[in-house]
Please model this.
Amino acid sequence: MPDITSHGLRYSIRVRRAAHDGSSRGEVLPRDPGRGWPEINGRLFPVARMGPMRWPVPEIATLADLAAHLDLHLSELEWLADVRGLERSVPAEKLRNYSYRWIPRDRGLPRLLEMPKRRLKEVQRRVLREIVDPIPPHPDAHGFRRGHSALTNARRHTGAGLVIGFDLEDFFASVTGGRVYGIFRGAGYPETVAHRLTALSTNVVSRDAWHELPEPERADLIAKRHRLGRRLATPHLPQGAPTSPALANLAAFGLDRRLSALALATGVTYSRYADDLSFSGGRQLAARAAPFRRLVEEIVEDEGFRLNRRKSWLTSRAGRQAVTGVVVNAHPNLARVEYDRLRATLHDAALHGPEYANRTGVADFRAHLLGRIAWAGSLNPARRHKLDRLFGQITWPS
Model:
């Protein structure tokens, strides 16, 4: 009874050799077409099981288990997962799982928001909370994780002689479905389950939504538009899905590990906040800034990402050093121009009313101002009292 091993599963079968194959145990037998093909006397079917579980994720071994875990029927799971990529070509908007909106930017291409519709968004939140969150990102990643923020990221670079910053191009769209599948497989999920979790977390953009982006005139943006189109036409992390930030962090684990090792070897401090890479150091970094930047670019491209060269920068202590919007020359602080702009907005709102001051049409202007005040106060508590006093002078409509 020979054993056959496939994908880590062992099958045992018993066969009767047919005479028409011409041999049996080294003896030549006469051909007998009447005996037909080998006869299988018994079958052993594999049982799906979780692989090694390095993190405390729930055990989900089959598609039926996954549907039950997410409170879905199997047909609902197949519809929301969209393994066949029908989102790309379906003509009716109501049949899509996502809605789309292009957000203009001062420089560069507009940003595409891929917003999952209500049912898919609920499922993605459960996947995030119960399956993705238990998997830890790299310690040097400060974005999209509890206990970390733009402030904790900036603090690592306070008082450095030199700060170098880089920006990753199309960070979410650069994370392919294959990378996401590898994350779920690494968590221990069988192939079929990992495929569905990947499909629930990734998207291919509707052709109709893509055609809404006009062809740019600048040569560098034409090339960038082409790269973005290729990324959006294949499974990728959609910017707007609850699962995307955390999965992007996990997909960048290898990048963080290699850049952290480079920083350690060169006496430099490294951190990443979403698509912002920050390095800081002293004289040694200043003396080797150019070759260091080339090494960073090589590692980034080797890990499947691309630097946005228009957004890389280098500042010494003589200039204003800012990391993720926080000035870090001496201690974390809000840039003076940002503080003055906020104070002027509060003054306008107190003098002329909040509707006059809300020139950009923010939906919840009161919450917007409170958030900006809280952020400024967390960076410089001495300014908090002045900003609170100005806010208290605003008369809000009942």
Summary: Confidence is low (pLDDT under 50) at residues 1-20, 22-29. The chain has 16 helices and twelve strands. The first strand starts at residue 3 and ends at 6. The CA atoms of residues 77 and 130 lie 17 Å apart.
